[in-house]
Amino acid sequence: MVLMFLNGGGMRGGPLHGQLQGAPLCCVARSAPKYRYFSVGDRFPAMYEGGTGSVVGEVYDLPLTVLRDHLVPAEPPELELGVVELEDGAACLATVLRSSFVDSPELTDITEVGDWRAYSASR
Fold this sequence. Notes:
Layout lengths: L1 E5 L18 E6 L4 E6 L3 E6 L6 E7 L1 H11 L4 E7 L5 E7 L9 E3 L6 H6 L2
Parallel strand pairs: 1-7
Antiparallel strand pairs: 1-5, 2-5, 3-4, 3-8, 6-7
Protein name: Gamma-glutamylcyclotransferase
Organism: Amycolatopsis regifaucium
InterPro entries: AH_C, GGCT-like, GGCT-like_sf
């Protein structure tokens, strides 16, 4: 089992939520204020360490087999697994933006919003 911080399509109501295979929601949380947050072509969000923003997400208790067989294969190639810091200092797995995509013209900085659902609702 692993704690996984989801901040996009894997959250409740999102198109990837079914990939969690019923894994339990532990809590709604925020990241520590040390990230940049992007919309990638208005298709999905991506966190990247090195900013001052905090990101809203959900923490799930996820079996590693579900991560391996369902969630990771459903993620876009711009993202990779990483470890993020939550607001309370806890470490959590998450998908983060690959360094090779940081300069992509598809990125829109949404750090000030810090919430994929709020950003999507404003579109």
